[in-house]
Q: What sequence folds into this?
């Protein structure tokens, strides 16, 4: 199996309260994005990587991350769009992949993905007509709230937190994004666009360490995880 990795890293990171975009903040001596790219650079199944970056940061990303750390699998860095969904669509348009090729879409600020999950989510996508998503079961009780008032308590055993990578056949995820663009639909993740096509999407249990770094508290947690090896 030969895989392509699409890495959206075009977010501005306003919740991080930093003048530096979150993907370039230091984590253990390297930018967060460099940790993320290394996961796919070193995976033998991944053949190519495409990064989506803010247009005015493409040169910086190439020089200070890709070239500085020697990521040879990065084939292109493309400009992002107004929102993440637009950025992913831009990346898919730039990606050179066959219809039945598996594409992994992984947030640039999820640097702590256990490498073992890459092959698992890719295999899940190859087996499914829709795709496969890494996620973890919800640990806290979830409440439905409207105007500050609790309206209901969903059954927790059926609730999972979706993470990335999310893996799909190239033709499937391209069709899902093109249809969403034509119809003006905005999804909360890439899997939600595939679900609209009526296709099944599998869930692969991942890791609670696979956090998305969006706030200063997340960065503190990521630094602690980085110093503590994962226990199976």
A:
């Amino acid at each position: 199996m030969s895989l392509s990795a699409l890495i959206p890293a075009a977010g501005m990171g306003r919740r991080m309260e930093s003048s530096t975009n979150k993907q370039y903040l230091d984590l253990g001596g390297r930018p967060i994005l460099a940790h993320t790219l290394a996961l796919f650079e070193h995976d033998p199944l991944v053949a190519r990587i495409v990064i989506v970056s803010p247009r005015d940061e493409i040169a910086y990303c190439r020089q200070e991350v890709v070239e500085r750390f020697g990521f040879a699998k990065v084939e292109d860095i493309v400009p992002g769009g107004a929102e993440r969904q637009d950025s992913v669509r831009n990346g898919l348009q730039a990606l050179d992949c066959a219809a039945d090729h598996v594409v992994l879409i992984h947030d640039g600020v999820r640097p702590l993905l256990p490498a073992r999950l890459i092959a698992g989510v890719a295999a899940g996508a190859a087996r499914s007509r829709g795709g496969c998503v890494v996620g973890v079961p919800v640990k806290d009780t979830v409440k439905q709230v409207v105007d500050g008032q609790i309206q209901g308590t969903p059954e927790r055993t059926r609730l999972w937190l979706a993470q990335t990578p999310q893996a799909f056949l190239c033709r499937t995820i391209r069709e899902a994004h093109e249809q969403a663009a034509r119809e003006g639909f905005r999804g909360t993740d890439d899997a939600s666009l595939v679900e609209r096509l009526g296709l099944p999407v599998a869930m692969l249990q991942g890791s609670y360490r696979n956090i998305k770094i969006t706030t200063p508290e997340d960065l503190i947690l990521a630094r602690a995880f980085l110093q503590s090896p994962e226990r199976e």
Summary: The longest helix spans residues 170-183. The two ends are 25 Å apart (CA to CA). The longest strand covers residues 160-169.
